[in-house]
């Protein structure tokens, strides 16, 4: 049975820098394949300390949505560990935007690129695959960083990750049909000059997509002060859709989102 495990739920510099929440990535298991989304600071440690254990040497792929440090700091060590520390040749897949690999500030080190079996450069349009899982990239607006949300389509359901982005009216349709919808909600209230979702904008996306389960994560200080669990409960009542706020270590089994 598949699951999604939130190794960390921190968003924004202050929460990450103070480690008020862990800033590790999200571990995903679907159709007997293991994927890691956005390995931020502390991801390797949180994998090794997880209970029950998560073995990063068993990973089949790593997805990097953009190059900002809270999403990418551990990508190099995780690529090496995914390849079983380089002792058994190439292993796994890296999905990453082009500016994580090229330009003045690539975050994936060149010598580490020998470890994955292949590197897929993310862009909106193509369908990528990890065996039975189909991977779709959704272009987001997030400052000067090339950023993509992700939809994973598998026999265990359709799972969408709305990562860091400015809200646009077109955004919800790209996540149509998602059974589980995970949203990075950094801000309590809309802040036009900051390309992060606020709680009302996340609510609008959930209302339009109508997932079986929505999960809020990647919290900044305004969200933490407002108590994410209580906010999620209010959204559930308002939208008549189950909405929960992730805590560090939260595991959601696939039977909670399968229709």
Relative strand content: 25-35%
Number of helices: 7
**Any low-confidence stretches, pLDDT <50, length ≥5?**
none
Taking the sheet with the most strands, its summary is:
7 strands, mixed
Describe the structure.
There is one protein chain. By secondary structure, the protein is an alpha/beta fold. The mean pLDDT is 96. Strand 2 and strand 3 (33-37) form a beta hairpin. The protein has one domain (3-254): Metallo-beta-lactamase, Chain A, CATH 3.60.15.10. 20% of the residues lie in helices and 27% in strands. It is globular and about 50 Å long. The longest helix has 12 residues, at 228-239.
Short description:
This protein is an alpha/beta fold. It contains seven helices and 14 strands.
Task: Summarize this structure as a short list of keywords or feature phrases.
259 residues; alpha/beta; Metallo-beta-lactamase, Chain A; 7-stranded mixed β-sheet; 27% strand; globular
Describe how the helices and strands are arranged:
Blueprint: E1 3-6, H1 13-18, E2 26-30, E3 33-37, H2 43-49, E4 61-63, H3 69-72, H4 75-82, E5 93-97, E6 118-122, E7 127-130, E8 133-140, E9 147-154, E10 157-162, E11 180-184, H5 199-209, E12 213-217, H6 221-225, H7 228-239, E13 242-245, E14 251-253
Parallel strand pairs: 3-4, 4-5, 5-6, 10-11, 11-12, 12-13
Antiparallel strand pairs: 1-2, 1-14, 2-3, 7-8, 8-9, 9-10
């Amino acid at each position: 049975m598949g699951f999604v495990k939130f190794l960390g739920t921190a968003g924004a510099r202050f929460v990450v820098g103070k480690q008020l929440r862990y800033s590790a990535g999200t571990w995903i298991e679907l159709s007997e394949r293991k994927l890691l989304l956005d390995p931020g600071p502390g991801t390797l440690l949180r994998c090794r300390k997880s209970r029950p254990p998560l073995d990063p040497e068993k990973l089949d792929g790593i997805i990097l949505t953009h190059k900002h440090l809270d999403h990418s700091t551990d990508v190099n060590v995780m690529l090496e560990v995914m390849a079983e520390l380089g002792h058994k040749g190439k292993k796994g897949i890296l999905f990453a935007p082009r500016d994580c690999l090229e330009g003045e500030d690539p975050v994936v080190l060149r010598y580490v690129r020998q470890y994955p079996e292949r590197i897929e450069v993310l862009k909106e349009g193509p369908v990528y695959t990890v065996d039975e899982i189909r991977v779709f990239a959704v272009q987001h607006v997030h400052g000067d960083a090339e950023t993509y949300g992700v939809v994973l389509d598998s026999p265990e359901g359709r799972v969408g990750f709305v990562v860091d982005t400015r809200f646009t009216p077109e955004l919800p349709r790209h996540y149509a049909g998602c059974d589980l919808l995970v949203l990075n909600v950094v801000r309590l209230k809309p802040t036009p000059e900051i390309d992060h979702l606020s709680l009302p904008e996340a609510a609008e996306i959930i209302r339009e997509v109508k997932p079986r389960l929505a999960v809020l994560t990647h919290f900044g200080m305004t969200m933490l002060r407002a108590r994410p669990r209580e906010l999620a409960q209010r959204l559930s009542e308002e939208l008549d859709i189950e909405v929960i706020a992730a805590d560090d270590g939260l595991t959601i089994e696939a039977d909670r989102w399968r229709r």
